[in-house]
Amino acid sequence: MTGMDIRSTTARASVRITPTADAAGFGLDGQSSFGADVLATPRWYVESGADTVLGRFTDNGKGAFAVKNNGTFHAVFFGGMRMEPATIRAIVRYAGGHVFLDTDDITMASDDIVVVVHASRAGAKTVRFPRQTDVYDYFKGAWSLGVPSVTFAMEPGETRYLFYGVRSAIESRRLPAW
Questions:
Q1: 31 to each of 14, 21, 67, 75, 88, how far by Cα in Å?
Q2: pTM to 2 decimals?
Q3: DSSP three-state, residue 28
Q4: Neighbours of 11 (CB within 10 A)
């Protein structure tokens, strides 16, 4: 399925992964390790066939995080446990997906209608859209027209609904006023 040769080992050991030099080029610069430092058996690793090995098990150097472009699809192998949000965002970008938000807040989005942001932490949030668009901030009742992104402050636990697309199409939905 991945186009990579995957093997297992039955030695109970940590699944902590140390990044390789290639991790920075993948958008994972600044990370000192990946995943949880827990013991597991079996552990799975990439033996061969990866285009790029992004991380290796800290204890034995075997390929623990790798990617391969198979032509019609991109494959990712991650032999650790618990991916950090930055790792997930890098994988989405590698696969050609759009990342709306670069913070570790909870984000739900559809292709062309709404982005929901639930703040994990206080601070400024910049939501980037796949194209220039009109944006309606539902709870604030405010429009941003013809923009590639919107930035706003949020408090922990706050939720925002951002409808995006063509203003007339958004207005035709007759959203209820709460």
A1: 18, 11, 17, 21, 13
A2: 0.85
A3: helix
A4: 12
DSSP symbol at 101: B
Q: 3-class DSSP state for residue 92?
A: helix
Fold classified for 106-171 = Immunoglobulin-like (2.60.40)
In whole angstroms, what is the distance from residue 63 CA to residue 56 CA?
5
- Which residues is 77 bridged to in the sheet? 66
Q: How far apart are CA 18 and CA 37, in angstroms?
A: 11
* Band of pLDDT at residue 36, cut at 50, 70 and 90: confident
- Whole-number Å distance between alpha carbons of 22 and 93: 16
Q: Per the structure block, which two tokens stand in for 170?
A: 């958004």
For the chain, the structural domain boundaries read 5-94, 106-171
Q: Where are the beta strands (DSSP E) in 138-177?
A: 142-154, 159-165
C-alpha to C-alpha distance for 71 and 158, rounded to whole angstroms = 41
Contact 127, 101 (CB under 8 A): yes
- What was the pLDDT predicted at 77? 96
Give me the chain's average pLDDT, please: 93
Tell me, what's the pLDDT at 58?
A: 92
Residue type, 116: V
